[in-house]
Amino acid sequence: SCDGTPNYSGGKAGGTIVTTYTVRVIGSGGTATMNSLVYDFSGSSYHYGNDYGSRSITVTAQTPPNISLVKSVSPSGTQPPGTDLVYTVNFSNSGNLAAQQFILVDPDTSTTLKINDNTDFKVGSVSTTLGGFTGVTVAYSNNGGATFAYTPASGAGGAPAGYDRNVTHVRWTFTGSLASSGSGSVSFTARIR
Questions:
Q1: Phi-psi category of residue 149: left, alpha or beta, with phi > 0 → left and psi -120 to 50 → alpha
Q2: Is 145 in contact with 136 (CB distance < 8 Å)?
Q3: Residue pLDDT, tens place only, 70-104
């Protein structure tokens, strides 16, 4: 279906007319040929006999960005206190269009999970593979993800040297875009108490 008012420009009989339509594509992915689009140039100074034509056009609907996240921990399985755990989130874009304004927070703030539930965040352990993004800003929360203005410090909250017991969440804010089929990862380390 067409949305809005068509935009006409062009000349009179024997000239060329350009018509621009805004079309809302309801589905995604795939290609379809539209054969029922009719241009009617009648009305006002354009009214002539047989003054219409039809054209077949091909519309390709692009699948929007589709980001998949896969989280893992190493080493896996049950580990004793004092073990460093490396948490990694791999991300990939399976959509046809590039992803922009991508923000990743770990753990998800919609859950009650926090990094400092049973572990201490390792200061300076955050790592990022951009995967096509042009940059990233990393921020930390010490209040359950309500704000991200905290700066981790060695020994904070009673943690051992090199660790911070106050960090609850890490946020990565990416700049640029992640192309279709692009992928990257983020990670941090936490020590079991």
A1: alpha
A2: no
A3: 999 999 999 999 999 999 999 999 999 999 999 99
- Tokens (6 digits) for 38: 């009719």
- Do 12 and 96 belong together in one domain? no
Q: What Å distances lie between residue 89 and 48, 60, 124, CA to CA?
A: 64, 32, 17
User: Are residues 110 and 178 both part of a single domain?
Assistant: yes
What's the total number of domains in the chain? Answer: 2
What is d(CA 12, CA 15) in angstroms, rounded to the nearest whole number?
5
Residue 129 CA: distances (Å) to CA of 5, 42, 73: 45, 58, 17
Residue 148 has, within 13 A of its CA and on its CB side, a CA count of 15
Q: Do both 42 and 92 map to the same domain?
A: no
pLDDT band at 22 (very low <50, low <70, confident <90, very high): low
Q: Give the separation between CA 50 and CA 53, rounded to whole angstroms.
A: 8
